[in-house]
Amino acid sequence: MPMSEASLRNRWREGFFRDVLDRLNPFLYSMVRRPRDAPFAFPGMNFPGADEARRLPKTGGQRHGMNGSFPYLDENELGGIELFRQVPLESIKGLIDACTVLELQPEDALIKAGQANHATYFVLDGRLRVHLDGPEKKPVAMLGPGESIGEMSVLDQQPASAFVIADKPCRLLVMEEDILWSLVQSSHEAACNLLFILTRRLRNTDSVLVDGHQVAWESRRLGSVDALTGLHNRQWLDQVMARQCMRCDVAKKPLSVVTIDIDHFREFNDRFGHVYGDHVLYWVAHTLTELLRPNELIARYDGDEFVVVLPEQGLATAKRIADRLQQGVLNAIPATPDGQTVPHPTISIGIAEMKMGQSSERLLEEAGAAMRRAKEQGRNRTAE
After folding, report:
1. Cα–Cα dist 56/36, whole Å
2. What residue ranges define each of the domains in the chain, with the CATH number in brackets?
3. What is the pLDDT along the chain (384 residues), one digit of tens a residue?
4. 115: Cβ contacts below 8 Å, ≥ 6 apart
5. Phi, then psi, of 377 in degrees rounded to 5
6. Cα gap 256→177, rounded to integer Å
7. pTM for the complete prediction?
8. Which of 220, 214, 207, 210 is nearest to 4 (CA)?
């Protein structure tokens, strides 16, 4: 069955977030093992073609150079950047002077997924949106003053994994990758801050992944459950039948199917209304469920028809289970409309055992044909 767009998106996110730690391992290991005063080294710092790659990426917006004394910045703006927390700004003044300031207008694209990125961007003013699936999709994060984006591409030299769009007019401090590496090498505090930023980002994305799994699981659960009876539905049954038939066929073990239909169900609807008909459906489903064991799998197949799958059970066992279900429905006390006398619901049952190499569809057809023979023979009985 084709996957939904949401399922595909969740699977893509899962693959991306699982890769993040692998991509960061060399960097994290180097930072953790590095003595405080030792020079910092990372494999990506001197890769082939680094000089060309370290040029600023072609993005929209207007750039301004830095010519000493932070002409386009004040110390409060710099102090609010997470990477510079507890870093003496005068000690890195030369590195900051080598940065540029980029101004963006709303909807300007800063980073595009799949394209190379060789700079880290720090939000001085304004707000950025981060999109995983495309700029037209719902953003997964909003970045404000002090926050940064682009570090991941700088660390692993891989194409960007997200779209970053200006949500409001923005001013960004642009730090090319060689400047970032020089900063991390020269400042232990900056290296620790970068580690903290990346760790927090991983934790946040892990939370997004968990939430996505929960939503996907709930969607799958609701998509496989019949709303009226609470039983599994036909979609679930088709999938389970195919798997069980294949498994039992390979293992050369039996598999049987029991098809159940409520006798005279149309009359219940016509005489007492559809609300009472729904009560009968629910009551029969609940009664059958109570009579079945955990390895006997039941689903509402269509209308007033139910199917029970019996893995590793032959025809003789299926016949005994069918008798148990039929007698159980007869002995149970049904719900009745107030002040009315109604006939006791009964069921007709057809059973079939899988033949070697038989498809699940063909097996269901045989069980359904047997159930119709039971109805033709007078109802409230079992046929095979």
Report:
1. 30
2. 5-215 (2.60.120.10), 234-383 (3.30.70.270)
3. 444 445 544 544 445 444 544 545 555 555 444 444 444 444 434 433 334 333 333 445 555 554 444 445 667 778 788 888 888 888 888 888 888 899 999 999 999 988 999 999 999 999 999 988 788 888 888 899 988 898 888 888 888 888 999 999 999 999 998 898 888 888 888 888 888 888 777 766 655 555 555 555 554 555 688 888 888 888 888 888 888 898 888 888 999 999 999 998 888 888 888 888 888 889 999 999 999 888 888 999 988 999 999 998 999 999 999 999 999 998 987 766 665 667 788 999 999 999 988 999 999 999 999 999 999 999 899 998
4. 57, 159, 160
5. -85, 5
6. 65
7. 0.47
8. 220
